[in-house]
Amino acid sequence: MRRNLIFFITMAVLVSGMIAHAVDLKNITFATDNAGKVVFSHKNHIRQKQMANNCKACHDTIYPFKQKATYTMADMDKGKSCGACHDGKSAFALKECARCHQVKEITFAVKATGATLFSHQKHLAAEPNCNACHPALFVAGHNKPTTMAEMKQGKSCGACHNGKAAFSIDSCAKCHPTKNQKYTIKGAGSVTFSHATHTGHYQCGSCHTKIYALPRSTARVSMMAMEKGKSCGACHNGKTAFSVKANCATCHKTS
Prior knowledge:
By secondary structure, the chain is α+β, with helices and mostly antiparallel strands. The chain folds into 3 domains: 95 residues, Cytochrome C3 (Alpha-Beta Complex); 69 residues, Cytochrome C3 (Alpha-Beta Complex), CATH 3.90.10; 70 residues, Cytochrome C3 (Alpha-Beta Complex), CATH 3.90.10.10. 21% of the residues lie in helices and 11% in strands. The protein contains 7 helices and 6 strands; from the N terminus they run αββααββααββαα. The strands form 3 sheets. It has a two-stranded antiparallel sheet. Strands 3-4 form a two-stranded antiparallel ribbon. The chain is elongated. The relative contact order is 0.05.
């Protein structure tokens, strides 16, 4: 009798082990609308203390095997699907979106000023709640281009970059890349215009687009026109900055 009992216990252990190994626990990838792919890891979840290798913690109570349902973030906020545990108590809150939704650095092709980088990492470090921007300011996915004039009215980046919540959009060079401009002057060598030097004294709006249009114009301005207040002469008049009349060697290199 005792031998039979030991045999049955041994067989039960072996069978349960075989069943456990027969279950193929693999990652599941969900393709969301306008929010990239989300990877669900079975292994990471069954390692959690509250799961304790218990598949019944989720199946069939939260996720029925035979039912293929799609849940919105609003549904999850009400405790459905992932929201049953990810409530900020049992597990991290749903608002920590970047822990499931993969984010990336975004480059906007701006015709007038060149490529502009938006860093999710830098913004999430300042504001970890993705709901601060999505979907109130930006839909998750492609957004229509917004002009600087619209941003100054509080749209898009201008909702935060108003000089109060974050640096003002008037600090253009913090987002739009600038570089030195070189002009080849026939009979007077080359002249270098330094954005770094000028933005150290003035904001970009002081020159663009009142004095200089964007993108850079191919038109040439003579020294005579500058002496009348055009181009560099708008500031280099001997009052705001050194005069184009008397300080030629400051810009035109002489030997």
